[in-house]
Amino acid sequence: MAVTQQSANEEPELNPGILTDGAAPLQAMAVTQQSANEEPELNPGILTDGAAPLQAMAVTQQSANDTGQPTEKNCTCGSMKDAQQKIALLEKTVQRLYKSNIMLETKLDAAVARLVTTSILQESPKRCMFYTGLVNSAVFDCLLEYFTPRASGMCYWGSDKKNRSETRGRPREHELGDEFFMVLVRLRRGMSGEELARNFMMSESQVSRIFAAWINFLQRELRMLTTLPSREAIKPHLPKSFRGFENTRLVLDATEVRIQRPSSLSAQRQTFSPYKHYNTYKALIGCTPDGYVAFVSRLWGGSVSDKTILEGSGLLDVLEEGDGIMVDKGFTFPYLPSGLTVYRPPFRERHEKQMPPQAVEETRRIASARVHVERAIARVKSFHILDKAFPITMIDIADQVFEVCCLLTNFRLPLIADTE
C-alpha cells in the first residue's frame, strides 16, 4: 500500500518511445497554429510568373488615364448619344413624311373626285342623263346586263379575228362597265380622246380601239332592238295632233352633221351643203307619231337630195299598203308604192296671190304634227359628239356613231304623252 501511495503522488514518467511516436500530431498542430499566426511567405517564383497580368492591367489603366483615350465607360456613353441623335432625326423624318403623305392623299382624293366614273351615275338621274344620255342608272345597268354576254367575246379594233378563239389573250384591262360608260360619255359629252385617256387612265390608242369596237357592237345590237311598229301598234299611242292622220306610220325628216373639210376636191363637192354652206353628212330619220326613232338611213354627202337618200334607203319597199308618211314641203319621191298616203304641206301655186284658207289650215295641222320629229332630232343632237365638225380621222365610223346616237334616244322617257 505504501508503494501504491507513492506512485500516485509522483508524476508519471513518460516513455521516450511513446513521445517519439505520438508527438507527431502535436507538432503538426503547433506548426499549423504558427503558420496561421505568421504572415505567409511568397514564393519568388510565383510572384515572377503570376504578377504579369496584374502589372499589365495596372500599366494599361495608368496609360489610359495618362493619354486621355476613351475607356469602355466613355465609349458606351458616346454610342448612346449618337443613337439618341439618330432616333431624333428619324422621328423628325417620319413626321415630315407623315405630313407629306396626308397632303398627297388629300390631293389624290380631290383628283379622284374630279374623275368621271360609273359611281357618278348613282348620285342622281340628272347626272346620269348629263354624262350618258340615259334617264337613270337603272337603265344603264339593264343595258350593261343585256350587252355583257355578247360583249365578252368582242374583238377589239386591230386584233386578229381569226385567232381570237384559238389563243388565250391577255386578261381584260378594263371592266366592260367602264368601257361602255366611256363610250357613252364620249357620245354624250363629245370629249376628245386625250380627255378620255386622262380621265379613264388609259392611253389614247386604247381609247380609240375600245371606242371603235364598242360603236360597231352597239350599232349591231341596237338595230336588233329597234323595229318599225305596225299601224295597229301605233294607234293606241297616237297623239291628239295626229287626228285626221290616223294611218301615219312614219314622220320623215332629213338632218345634217357637220364634218371637217376633206382634202380631196371631189369629196369637198360631194359633202358641201347648199343649205348649210359648209361640208356635211346628211341622213334621213323616221319617227313614229309618238317620237320613237324607228328608221335611220346611212350618211350621205351634204350635196345629195332627200329624194336620192329616200330611194337609196329602201324604206319605200318596207312600207305597206294603207300606210301614211308625213314629210316637209319640198320633199319629193322617186316613186310612190301603191296605197301609200303622203301628208305634205301644200304649195302656193304661182298664179295664186295667197294660199286658200283650206291649204293654210292643212299646213298648220301638218306642221303641228311634224314638230315632234324635230324634237326627236333635237334629242339626237343632244349627243354633243355631233356638235363639232366630225373629224376626218373618224369618218370610217361616222355612220355607226350617228345611228347609235339616234337609237339611244329610244331609251329616254316618251317624247310626248299619249294624251298630248
Would you mind describing this structure in some detail?
The protein is α/β, with parallel strands linked by helices. The chain has helices at 2-9, 16-37, 44-67, 72-114, 125-132, 137-151, 176-189, 193-200, 204-225, 231-234, 265-271, 306-313, 357-381, 398-408, and strands at residues 248-258, 280-287, 293-296, 300-301, 324-326, 341-343. Among the domains are: 119-159 and 173-225, no CATH class; 231-411, Nucleotidyltransferase, domain 5 (2-Layer Sandwich), CATH 3.30.420. Strands 1, 2, 3, 4, 5 and 6 form a 6-stranded mixed β-sheet that branches. The chain is elongated. The model is unreliable at 1-64 and 159-169 (pLDDT under 50). Residues 176-222 form the Transposase Helix-turn-helix domain.
Keywords:
single chain; 420 residues; alpha/beta; Nucleotidyltransferase, domain 5; 6-stranded mixed beta sheet; 14 helices; 52% helix; disordered N terminus
Number of strands: 6
Give the N-terminus to C-terminus distance in angstroms.
174 Å
Helix content: 40-55%
Report the total helices. 14
Sheet-strand content, in percent, reads 5-15%
Question: What is the strand and helix layout of this fold?
Answer:
Elements: H1 2-9, H2 16-37, H3 44-67, H4 72-114, H5 125-132, H6 137-151, H7 176-189, H8 193-200, H9 204-225, H10 231-234, E1 248-258, H11 265-271, E2 280-287, E3 293-296, E4 300-301, H12 306-313, E5 324-326, E6 341-343, H13 357-381, H14 398-408
Parallel strand pairs: 1-5, 5-6
Antiparallel strand pairs: 1-2, 2-3, 2-4
Helix pairs in contact: 7-9, 8-9, 9-14, 13-14
